[in-house]
Amino acid sequence: MLLEIDTTSATPIYTQIRDQMILGIAQGDLKVAESLPSVRQLADELGVNMMTISKAYTVLKKEGYLLTDRRKGTQVAPYPKKTDSFAREYQQQLALLTAEAAIHGLTPEEMVKDVVNLFTEFRKDESV
Amino acid sequence: MNIVIWILIGTYFLLALILRIPGNPHKNIILENTLPKDKLDEPKVTALRKAYKNNLLKIAGALSVLTLPLLFVSYDSIVMASFSLLLVVSIGALYGCEIFYIHKMRQLLIEQDWLLQVAPVLVDTKLTVEKNKKLVPVAWLIGSLLIAGAVLAFSFFQFGSSTISWTLLGTFVLLWGVFAAGYYATTRIPVRALTDDQETNRQYNNLTKHAWSFMMVMLSYLFIPTLLIPFVTLVKSAWLSSVLMVGFLLLLLAGSLFTFYLTFRLRKKQDVLLEETTSYRYNGEDQYWKYGMYINPDDSRLMVPDRLGMNLSINLGKRSGKIISVITLVSVLVILIGTTFPLFLFDFGENQLHYTLTDDQVTLNAPLTKASSIPFVEMESVELLEDLPNTRIRINGMATDDYLTGIFKVENKRAVLYVDRSSKPILKITTQDEDYYYTNKDEAETQQLYQALQNDLGKSH
Question: Which of B125, B129, B300 sits opposite A43 (nearest CB)?
Fold first, then answer.
């Protein structure tokens, strides 16, 4: 997949990597068991400290999106199961997003339509 | 010494020609500034490039005119001191010219509103994982390590644990280390998407990786002949050893030229690749190159590919980069001063080639050369020569137009020289293992020593 990192953005680099990798997995740009660059390689690529990349990978591993294999390095994990901590985080994020949508005048129907569209985009690989 | 002056003048023009390269567009960069692709041929840009390149040649020309009077100076010490000084001045002047024009180009971009938007860094994860696929195998580097190791083992076998063996070992560790580090730095060069087209990026990266790793491996083999130089002194025939020495030098020269050829070819191939694409991504690096070298404290890499596509550059924003640069600079200065200083002693010191006679031996001295004490009982003969034998090779000493001091091989025999070439006759002392050649600056003194030795030799034999 293509990561597009803006080193001047206010969003921390590790958050940019995390978010884009999750989107990549959902969109099928990153396949299950696909190898990812090592921490050093990615740090060299972006010209940033290895700690930054390590932080992004640690978060992604903790959330179940990535796996580290001693021989094969870092890989995309099989789709993780829904855990309690994910359910909590999901509820929080959804509440926040819905609140913003409501404030900006979106109707529940409009929001559901957007969600359905995104789902078809994300799950297009699964339906094949 | 005239040759030194011509080398210096050659160096000015060589430096000017090298510094002209950033004046040509590569990766849409001219004079360390990235331009929009459609502005590369704008008349104002062309005019600035032309002025820069002409001025470099003018500076080289002016420096040459300043240097020519040195042809009429007969003191080696003054010539060498001026050489060092002019070398520093020329680097400063030519480099200053480059910085001046980098800033002028920047101003032009600002005036014309041609500054590019910084594109976010694009990383292709697949390409990054496979970025070192086209590297020359690291096993090739191990090959040179083994060969050089064998040469070193032979050296310790031949010369024992002597200065020669240890110097060879030091040279080897330093040189091989540099090339191994270069190879490692090549593995870490980022893919850095230059365009939006991933295939172009992949090919661009493969070209860099292959060419650079190949160069490092090739250079690691090329320096092995320099390790063989001390063995040349063991060759009996002076003719053969001269041929071998010239051969080694030619090999080194050919290797350096071939490296240049490889880098030029790489640059050309990459330019062709980039010409075909329209989506060049500017990553905002211009600000780190405004002094013609890479200064970026936020980049963790020590070595980065330079923007000419021909070299690796040290990141001077990093502490280790600064330390390495300062050490290199100081070493060069020490070498320049260290080679010039003894020449001043010879030219302006008082009777530097002196001798001390005692009851049973004579001691010969020259500046920065180990003194030789020769007991009379070891002397086989003492004679006066009108000329030095022509078949001589310098092993560890100094040979200028005016002086020959240190250890040489003269007519296939080890010899220690303390000779002022303008002074005749030359005193030759023969012992079983080595010969000694000596002149005093004052010819009468040489004669006097010869007489004294003749008398003492008569007594002791």
Answer: B300
